[in-house]
Design a protein that fits this description.
Bound molecules: pyridoxal-5'-phosphate
CATH superfamily of the largest domain: D-amino Acid Aminotransferase, subunit A, domain 2
CATH architecture of the largest domain: Alpha-Beta Barrel
Distance between the termini: 25 Å
Oligomer: single chain
Largest sheet: 9 strands, antiparallel
Number of domains: 2
């Protein structure tokens, strides 16, 4: 019998056998420890709970046809967690410790890596928070780093298909000099009002605009935005967005496919000039956008009028997914075999 119904896995949490925990105390990181509990014991005055000293990462490992498990661009996630830690004054997790914890947790949970061809993958969630007790507002002197994994189904179970999004003008996710460039839980908390409103109106997500002028596209909830026109991949440059590793990878893939790329401010009005649009991130890789509604300006921008993702979007998507699954040559050196 199979361990799980791989073909029908949700994109959600499923318990696995082990997770890794590591503590920072007296200026040093301790050894990673293996735990089989899904729970943590946390001080009631931990800064992670009170003052939002918390950052996380999300990445995936894939089972190849050859039975090897491949991890996608873990070093990028390691560096981004170091950046996020610095952004909210936490002790950074050294890249080597990050790698060691990831490899260990994947190896301990090998049976949870979904089989090749199932469309599912192993989602890895590293988490760092202030675990030291402080009542006054200041950075903690102790930190905890945890890595857990959970097998996840493909974001689009019936295949990649366009979703609708709503432009949000009454909530800001992040300010220009705030924490938008860091992957911290606080940004997610700040986005929930807008996300809940969008979902209640039937949209997959919300599109945030730059907080200062409300003139430019920032990002699509927890994913970066891109538009396509005249064989060019265009993605916003902004000081308040999280730099997506998927986006960065799509830019490289576009280059290799002869598609031009631009990273620059994208004014809202430009939405009417794109032939395709999409959101990108680890969870879905790409969510093609069918329609963007801007209720306050009474505007609707439509793409994929035939209900299917556009050709450039599909070319980029297929190549990235093939590299991740180990089906295409790893020409950029992004994959690491977990042994
Ligand atoms: C994690 C995240 C993304 C996607 O980044 P990837 O590295 O591609 O997974 C985009 N926006 C926000 C706000 C995020 O937190």
């Amino acid at each position: 019998m199979e361990l799980l119904d791989w073909k029908n896995l949700p994109f959600g949490y499923i318990k696995t056998d082990y997770n890794i925990r590591c503590k920072y105390k007296d200026g040093n990181w301790g050894k990673p420890e293996v735990s089989s509990s899904e729970y943590i014991d946390i001080h009631i005055a931990a800064t992670g709970l009170h003052y939002g000293q918390e950052a996380f990462e999300g990445l995936k490992a894939y089972m190849g046809k050859d039975g090897k498990i491949r991890l996608f661009r873990w070093d990028e996630n390691a560096n981004r967690l170091i950046l996020s830690a610095g952004g909210i004054k936490m002790a950074p997790v050294p890249a080597e410790l990050f790698r060691e914890a990831l490899f260990q947790v994947i190896n301990l949970n090998r049976k949870f890596v979904p089989p090749y061809g199932s469309g599912a993958s192993l989602y890895i969630r590293p988490l760092l928070y202030g675990s030291g007790a402080e009542v006054g507002v200041k950075p903690a002197s102790e930190y905890t780093f945890i890595v857990f994994v959970t097998p996840v189904g493909p974001y689009f179970r019936e295949g990649i298909k366009p979703v609708n999004m709503m432009i949000c003008r009454d909530v800001d996710r992040a300010a220009p000099l705030g924490t938008g460039i860091f992957k911290v839980g606080g940004n997610y908390a700040a986005s929930l009002r807008a996300l809940v409103t969008a979902k209640a109106s039937g949209y997959a997500s919300t599109i945030f605009l730059d907080a200062r002028e409300k003139k430019y596209i920032d990002e699509c909830g927890p994913a970066n935005f891109f538009g396509i026109k005249e064989n060019t991949y265009i993605t916003p440059k902004s000081v308040s967005i999280l730099n997506s590793i998927t986006n960065k990878s799509l830019i490289d893939i576009a280059g290799s496919l002869g598609i031009k790329t631009e990273r620059r401010p994208v004014p809202v009005e430009e939405l009417s000039t794109f032939s395709e649009a999409g959101a990108c991130g680890t969870a879905a890789v790409i969510s093609p956008i069918g329609k963007i509604v801007d209720p306050e300006k009474n505007m609707i921008y439509e793409y994929c009028k035939d209900g299917k993702p556009g050709p450039v979007t599909m070319k980029l998507y297929n190549k990235l997914v093939a590299i991740q699954n180990g089906d295409a040559e790893d020409e950029f050196g992004w994959m690491t075999v977990v042994e």
